[in-house]
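DM from R.C. (forwarded with permission)

"hey, sorry to bug you on a friday — could you get me a structure for this? deadline for the figure draft is monday and I only need the backbone to look sensible"
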Amino acid sequence: MFQIDKDKCLGCGGCTITCPKGIAIGSENKAEIINEEELIHAGGESVCPYGAIVLEEDDDIEDVFGVDEEIKDDDDQSMSF
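My reply, with the result:
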């Protein structure tokens, strides 16, 4: 799951422009995740240019995005990340 690092969030609203169905500015003038699936489709952590959207440490990429961490390149060679 993603969360908002309130110390890094400036409340600028840039994330709400990129992901209006997934993030809103809350009562503390900080971003709040309102729909994590929409946030994932919009780009997850990359939605905030200041790094305030973070993936909780307990989660791994496969759980969040439903993908395997092994990616094959054009030559069908495996690359692990």
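R.C.: lifesaver. The two ends are 19 Å apart (CA to CA).
me: no worries. The longest strand covers residues 2-4.
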